[in-house]
Amino acid sequence: MRKLNAAIAALFIFIVLSAFFSANFHKGAQELKITMDDGDTYSFLDLNLDLYDNIHDRENPDYYTANLFFDADTLTVPGSGELEQFATGNNNAKDLISYVNRISLGRGLGYRNVYDRKGSSDGTITDHRYAFLDSAGYIVWNKTDNFSEYYHSLFKSQLARGLLFNEALGIVHRMTQKYPADFKKRVITEIDSLIVFTKSLKKRVYSENKDFKVYWEGFIYRRYFVDKVPAAEIESALKKARNTLSAVKPLSDHGHKVTFNNSFTVYSSAGVFILASESNKKELSFNGAIEQVKYIKGKGFEITYTDKKRKLHSVTYTAQLKKI
Q1: What is the predicted pLDDT for the residue at 256?
Q2: Structural domain that includes position 137
Q3: Is the pTM above the cut of 0.85?
Q4: What rounded mean pLDDT belongs to the chain?
Q5: Are 97 and 193 in the same domain?
Q6: Is 123 helix (H, G, I), strand (E, B) or coil?
Q7: Whether residues 270 and 239 fall in one domain
């Protein structure tokens, strides 16, 4: 009898804990609760996919501060004392910070990349002259004339490379914690791809005008051929980054969690959608890109979505995820 009671108690605890974890497992970086009347619609195309970046909203007064990796006035690269040995009469570590910020703004680095695999289409991104502008918007020529030489002197130094890599890894580490889990997954996928690319460097031939669709492949290519950074060192750094980021637990599972009428939830990430019932905790992965949800009183929620060929479809589910 005692064994039976113990088994019943264990089963009860298991059921309670299962319900608890089922109800709390998913988190969205942005969580919305929408109340809908009969016939109301909600467009997922209206969601702020940028989350933190507001990449395409250059009229936003917070745009330029939200997208900077560094604040040149208040933050210096750790170990910048060591970097000062590379300073010239015109250039120093703060100029490097300005250049990195320029790349951050131009490329739209951040969570937006996970959605559209690209940032801004800014064609001047690799032109360092646009990193040094005065208050009137004119190029500061005494900064730009010798910046290329200063920049390459840093990457030709193993000490400087180590300092810059550690700082860059710290930035991505913080982003991986801050952004939803799909950001981490995408970054690790890209690192794996770059490791494979790095292994191919010794078989490649240098061309100054070679163009790369993937920015970081071009960056690695130039460091190897122009600055003579050993391929083994690049690969080791990438593997260190992969191991470090793999251990990060992001603060949220999805970009968005949208709950309709406290009964029907859609989790949205980069091309991934999950439907969930708030009453029975049932979940299912949705095969398609959801564009709109419409509430139909007495039936449930009609989902309009596109398939891989961009063809439009619709399907209706009850709040308990029963397909109608």
Answers
A1: 84
A2: 82-179+181-246
A3: no
A4: 78
A5: yes
A6: coil
A7: no
